[in-house]
TrEMBL record:
Residues annotated as transmembrane: none
Superkingdom of the organism of origin: Eukaryota
Protein name: Cytochrome P450
Protein family according to the UniProt entry: Belongs to the cytochrome P450 family.
Length: 401
């Protein structure tokens, strides 16, 4: 078995688009991520296609988007700002990444299950479900570096980190089972049509099969997959973004200047401001700075595929059935050639918030930056050249198009 690592955009396009059917995630991936069951992250083929279509349908719907938007705004105003004010008042040092991960745990759990676990509050409480998710993620990471025979033996014997995994798994399953049962009971009592969280939407959509174990197992796998998809990605994106802001006061000044234009319509509890997500759509510099941060520190830095049949990559490298292909997103975002290909027509998400700033044509598309190369604010060595015609965009269903 060969292990190929690539950051070549033509190979990436080949693996993810032109010859997608030949590059499933593969059985080993499914074994490592056993806790995810048959959910979207481990699924391949027809099962993946159906799950993806359903997730996209529910997540792009107006009720869900309005719910997420309203909840996030309220959460910032009622939990994040008071907690930051508390730390500012006491002068206590705190871990900003922990705060962001607590924030995104609450927001993702609410988005997926319609339940706010309250991780983000003064005193930083330990919530069993959150702890279990953290433990499970940690063990999933270890399984990538420990030889498979070792961790499988540990799992069979119930020792070491695999024991932690088994405990975490039970806690997670209990939380999910209780929440599904409660939601079904609510539905029986009077309906949950008004609830826009994803679990309620799936239950509402599955009327004819309601109550069968298949559906409960599907709901369990789906919700756990969505938790994994939404929480750490957003928490990591926020952490890196603020890390970069700390190093780039000039960018902070530009963002604050841009935010001045929407300050008037926002409320200000304790002298701090929480913005409505709708207002933030009109802030091209902030948007570009976030994209730039995602380029430099992508929350999903690599993706693993396994060739189903022999093939030749556009770079000329031969792939045999069973070979692994690791797409190194992190490296790709830092390759000058890739940046050059993405700018010009600027259809790449990580576009450059240059001094004058390009005009966003839509949430994911950037119009020409003019013929003059520009520099992103925190990448001194990055050079941008005109090179129209290439596009690359992430395919996470939570992105709006
Ligand atoms: C900064 C935040 C996020 C980033 C950077 C991100 C990035 C990604 C990436 C790179 C993929 C893999 C795409 C592929 O293999 O084609 C992915 C998949 C996915 N994401 Fe996100 N994501 C984010 C937030 C979210 C949120 C909030 C949700 C919703 C709960 C979500 C749901 C999903 C799902 C369901 C998939 C699986 C798609 C599939 O296999 O087809 N993501 N995401």
């Amino acid at each position: 078995m060969q292990f190929l690592v690539t950051a070549d955009p033509t190979n990436v396009r080949h693996v993810f688009t032109s010859n997608f059917a030949n590059y499933p995630k593969g059985p080993e991936f499914e074994e490592i991520f056993d806790i995810l069951g048959g959910g979207i992250f481990t699924a391949d083929g027809e099962s993946w296609r159906r799950q993806r279509a359903k997730a996209q349908l529910l997540m792009s719907g107006a009720p869900f988007r309005a719910f997420v938007s309203r909840y996030n705004r309220d959460k910032v105003g009622s939990a994040l700002l008071p907690l930051l004010a508390h730390f500012a008042g006491t002068g206590e040092a705190f871990d900003l990444q922990d705060v962001f991960l607590r924030l995104t745990f609450d927001t993702t759990t609410t988005m997926v299950f319609g339940v706010d676990p309250g991780c983000l509050s003064v005193g930083l409480p330990e919530v069993p479900f959150a702890r279990a998710m953290d433990d499970a993620m940690h063990v999933l990471l270890l399984r990538h570096v420990i030889p498979m025979t070792w961790w499988k033996l540990a799992r069979r014997l119930g020792i070491g980190w695999e024991r932690t995994m088994a405990t975490a798994w039970r806690t997670i399953d209990q939380f999910v089972a209780d929440t599904i049962a409660r939601r079904r009971a609510e539905k029986a009592r009077g309906g949950i049509e008004g609830s826009a969280d994803l679990l309620s939407s799936y239950i509402n959509d599955d009327d004819e099969e309601e109550g069968t174990t298949t559906v409960d197992a599907f709901l369990r796998d789906t919700t756990i997959n969505l938790m994994l998809a939404g929480r750490d990605t957003t928490g990591s994106a926020l952490s890196w973004f603020f890390y970069l802001l700390k190093q780039n006061p000039r960018v902070v000044a530009r963002i604050l200047q841009e935010l001045e234009s929407v300050k008037g319509t926002s409320s200000a509890p304790d002298g701090m401001v929480a913005f409505d997500p709708d207002e933030l759509g009109r802030l091209p510099y902030l948007h570009a700075a976030l994209c730039e941060s995602l380029r430099l520190y992508p929350p999903v830095p690599q993706e693993l595929k396994e060739a189903a049949a022999g093939d030749v990559l556009p770079s000329g490298h031969e792939v045999r059935a069973g070979d692994k292909v690791l797409v190194w997103v992190y490296a790709m975002g830092r390759m000058e050639d890739v940046g050059a290909a993405g700018c010009g027509t600027c259809r790449r998400t990580g576009s450059c918030p240059s001094t004058r700033g390009p005009a966003p044509a839509s949430a994911r598309t950037w119009r020409s930056c003019s013929s003059r190369p520009r520099r992103p604010p925190w990448c001194g060595t990055w050079r941008w050249r005109r090179c129209p015609g290439t596009s690359w965009s992430p395919s996470c269903p939570s992105y709006s198009t």
